[in-house]
Amino acid sequence: MADEPKEQQTPPKPVGxxxxxxxxxxxxxxxxxxxxxxxxxxxxxxxxxxxxSLQTPLNNELVARLRxxxxxxxxxxxxxxxxxxxxxxxxxxxxxxxxLRDDEKFDLLSDLTAVDWxxxxxxxxxxxxxxxxxxxxxxxxxxxxxxxxxVPSVSGVWPTANWLEREVYDMxxxxxxxxxxxxxxxxxxxxxxxxxxxxxxIIQQDTAWVKENLGIExxx
Length: 220
Prior knowledge:
Blueprint: E1 55-57, H1 61-70, E2 74-80, E3 83-88, H2 93-102, E4 108-116, E5 124-132, E6 137-145, E7 151-152, H3 161-172, E8 176-177, H4 207-214
Parallel strand pairs: 3-6, 7-8
Antiparallel strand pairs: 1-2, 2-3, 4-5, 5-6
């Protein structure tokens, strides 16, 4: 008798395993709705800031006393960033300086310098920075001078002005009348020109002096 065919058995599934899911078709992203909104209007330009005034007229008690004493000798008075500034007639500088020391008690000249404005008729600002120990107060005094104008020396009022005026003479060529020993203090006596003038040629310098005294063709 021939053997009967055996029934094919399905192999048992492992415990704990899930049947593999068949891959689902890729989802199609939804179509974006048409943007029907109008573009935003441009922002208006920011208006420019109002200019800041750094200088304001100065009319305090000190200025009133100076105007009463010297009249037109006080040309202007301003305050610049909390700094009191009095502009005086250059010809009366020494007279006003003496008054400031003796009557207004500005007993210290902390600095004396100059600024060159070559396009201006009176091209130089003479600048004195004063301090009062009794009043703990500062004052800046300015005087305008032309290139050929002599400035009254204040070395007789504040002795420290002696060397400060020599430095200004050396660097700017400003002559202080009444100075006891006005000569160069930084550069050699034979040097030509004044280095802090705006029209001074820093490249050329005094090539003749450099060649004669240093034996080279250029000071650079």
